[in-house]
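SECTION: protein entry
WANTED: fold as tokens:
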Amino acid sequence: MDKFFNPDATYSNAIQNKDIGVLRALLTGIIGSDPTFATTEFDEAKRYIDDQSMAIYGEKLEITEAYKIQEDEVEEAEWDEKYFQMNLVWLRDNFNLDNRLPKIKEIGQFVYKNKTTLGKSKIENRRQAVVEPISMRERNYVQKKEQTIRATGDGHSNDSRLIDKIVGWIKEHWVGVAIGVAFVIVIIGLIMKFTGKN
């Protein structure tokens, strides 16, 4: 079975400190980056939190809560990205997986069906790695390297090294980047909702 979740210090610190709000935000961020649930990352992260808290405290941290309708919660007939984002906010504010998660999955799979998401990209990258022969991957790497050298002159440009460092940093910190992007999307959705702009 493929593994998509790679825990970092944010998770272990939040579990150690019993910071339920951070754990809820992290799980909500995973949904924001994988709204169609193309990967099993959400389930893996939830299981990790349960397992780690059992190992540390002898019981699971109670991160879910009883369902409570939110003050601004409405049922929309038309599902779009804004409505999906609002459902994420309501989940974060009332972390009830039994009632909210099935609906969020349904909305996410409808709204993002034909859109690129981080989750879908991860699946596609895994598929390509398995399907594409090694020699083909090596050939593509050489071609890309040659294109980079042509684009930067002698291939020793500082710009090229800087881009490599940026890409490496993003790959290393992709969870944080995904969470950050999800929160920005949620904040923009809230601003649009409260300012009346569509």
Observations:
- The chain is about 70% helix and 0% strand.
- The two ends are 41 Å apart (CA to CA).
